[in-house]
Each structure stands twice: as C-alpha cells, then as structure tokens.
Amino acid sequence: MTRVVSFIEKSLAFLWRDFINEASYKFAFFLQFVGILVSIITYFFLSKLLGDIGVSYLKPYGGNYFSFILIGVAFFSYLRISIDGISKSIREGQMLGTLEALLVTQTGIPTIIISSSLYSFIFASFKVAVYLLLGVFVFGVNMGNANFAGALLILFLTIISFSSFGILSASFVMVLKRGDPISSIFTSVSGILGGLYYPVSVLPGWLQKLSHLLPVTYSLEGMRLALLQGYSLRELMPNIVALLLFSIIMLPLSIFIFGYAVKRAKIDGTLTQY
Fold it and tell me: What range defines the domain where residue 206 resides?
C-alpha cells in the first residue's frame, strides 16, 4: 500500500512539473492547437482534390481518404510522443538534477519511466480527442458505427508497444547524451511503411512484409477498422494479438536496457551530464 501511495505521489509530482513547464510557454501551447486545425483543413481539401482516386485501396476503411488520414495523423502522435516525450523528460531530469535525486531515493526504473511520460500521453490523448471531435462535428467524419471498446483496447496496447521504443530511445539519450540517432529514423520509417498517409496495400509486396514488423501498422489499421468500420473484437483480434506480442517482448527488454544504461551512467559518473 505504501508503495502504491508513493508511486501516485511521484507520478502526480511529475505531472504537475511537466504541466507547469508547458503552460509557461502559453503561445507555443496555443500554437499546437492551431497546428491541429491547420493540418485538418489541409487534409480535408487534399481529400477533395484526390476525389475517388485510390478508392479501391481505401475500401476496407470506408473508402474516404479524409477519414483515413484523420485517424492516421491523430493516432500517429502517440508514436512521436513515445519516442520524443520519454527521452525529453529523462534529459530534462538530467539537466535539473531530479533524475539523480529520484535514483538516490531508490525509485524503481518503471516508476521513473511512467512518471516521466505521464503528462506527454495525457496531453497527446487530449489532442487526439480534438482531432476526432473536429473531424466528426465540423468536417463530417462518420463514426456512427464505431466500436469504441475495441478502439480503447487497441489504444492501450498501442501506448504500451510504442512506449517500449520510447524507453529504448531514452536509453540512448542516457548513454550518448546528445540524442538518439535511431529515433528519427524509426519514426520516419514507421510513417512511410506503417500506413500513416496511405494504406499499406499500395506498397510493393516486399515492403508490405517489412511493414508487418512495425507495431504502428497494426495500431493504425486496428484504429481505422474499429472507428470507421465498427469491427468487433473478434475481427480486430489479429491486430490485438500482434500489438500484445510487441508489448510482451519489447517492454521488458526496453526496461532492462534502460536499467543497464542507468547503471553504466552511474559507474561512469555521467548521470547528470547532458
């Protein structure tokens, strides 16, 4: 019980710290939502331009490109947050000295990771909600048959599997100090192969096989099928199982690697260097 209370207190402290830090840059905070509106308008008119082009590829998702791209852009933000948000928070902890203080108090690695990323994921969820609400009530995206329970399950597994790669990114930051060379490459490849801007089915066969090695492929496809087509949990099972396997394998591995990176930084005396 004491551990649970301690975990909650530390998580809330991190959450409040990150909120105050973000809110202090009010104009930048406001611009993020302007950016959401601008991107939605851009994709809306782009879908008008494309018309029925590629409708055969979009048929499994309802045949509408704007709905397709809206879901993709909204939920791809979780990958960006996972990759950048966790490593950014760890880096700030190094700069402010809070990371070293936490480790001195014997705070567990999972607690540090969860607390460091909590605000980023809450804020990302808020932005996703803005995307979806604008899409439905302003731009007429049809989610009348959506399976929200299935979408929430996909989202839960998405956050876990994406977080694994964010933790790996933070491990590189811990060791290399100046950033992770893999994160930007992984994010770009995920965008190209994972079905962000177009269905995976448009890719050549060998690239489609590579795309199925990425969790984002199953995440975006599952979200689109659940929200736009109302697929049942049984129909979503291939996506659910794939994301579950990614989570089971990658999460423990990434936490182990991060723990090793922390130990190495302690031994080298570079824990507070950045």
Answer: 2-268
